[in-house]
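Data card: per-record layout.
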Amino acid sequence: MMLSYKYILLLAALLPTTVLGSTFISTTVKESRATGVSFSVDSKFLQDERRIDLYLPEKYEDSTRNYPIVVVLDSNYLFDLTVSILKNRWRRDLAPQSIVVGIQARDANERFGFASPVQRIHGEGVIFEQSKPDKMDDFIQKELLPYIDAEYRTQHHRTIIGMSPTATNVVYDYLKKQPYFNAHIALAADFLATPSFNGSPYSLVFDLSNSQSDKGFIFFSLASDDVLKEPDRGTPFQIMSKDTYANKGIHTFIAPKTEHYQQAGISLERAFSLLYPIDLWRPDYASLWSEDSNPLDYLKNFYSELDKQYQMQTYPLLEGYWTRNSIVGTVALMNERKNYKAALALLQWTNSLLSDNQTVLTLLTEQAIIVGDRELANQYLNALSQVVVKQGSNSSEDLKRLKTKINAFKPNEQR
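The structure for this 415-residue chain is written out next.
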């Protein structure tokens, strides 16, 4: 009995894996959950077992691209919310498709046990005094993410999200001389606390105001209800709303009409809109609607600059809810204007980024037929056939349809 390519990939993902000397053993088969899958790992750093949630982007098995990673602490509460927001934003070309890795906590003690010890400015004792943030740090950086990097196609652009006590873990990484993560999102953050791990007698505001300007992105949120209960908590947010902080990549937000946990949804939306602002992340497709536009040159330059900005490989949106605001929509517009060869060149560039993509190869085959190049059409059809077999998809009717169109081609139909 022959196993399909997809089945082999799935089977491999379920097997115990050894990475950098650490053995990760799924205590149970990966279980489906509302979003993605869930499995357990043994950690030598935590000296315990941890439940991990994992989301792979849509059509991950059918692509060859590499994806940035988003690590979610407080996964019990934040994982599904984070995945939902990222999926909606990606479909609107407002964020990259990402692999999301969630770390669960079995109870409050486990959640607090790996937070960063902090000292409240008002003179209370050290909170989470017995906690071990360095252990969680080691688990993430030396066990969990090396495993994810080895098992899945990843990019070294990483975001970490925490809330309330686990927001301190986010700050813990950011204040290092060389943070491990590129972007940090600290929800329900407490600025009246001093991170005792850095030995500073000053507030977190002081630490951040004196931080380097090239440490990446960090976002802090707070619920309006928390400010009502403790007005002093809102003062640092007002101080840090100045452009001098934003210019360093430090952003704050008080979520209106929300309580401590409820603010997570609106705050995550705000954080991702700042991390991937629409005027920077999404191409100005409207500028390509004019007759004299050159979509290929514009998009190549746009994504080249975006790669430099985020220090990762970025990809154009192939299809989207806004028909014209995508590669497929732009190709359709170019064909309406009879710019057939320019549309073919745009698809060829897209194929160089999204190789083994059935939609792109189908469009390339059809476009080669449109421009009257039978040999090229057959090349793309053969490539499509190989991908269909490799991915185990049922596209035989599409292949027959394309073959019929190629066979019906007449030499005088060149455009």
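Known properties of this structure: The chain has two domains: 5-280, 282-413. Residues 5-280 form a domain with the Rossmann fold fold (CATH 3.40.50.1820).

See the next section for split statistics.
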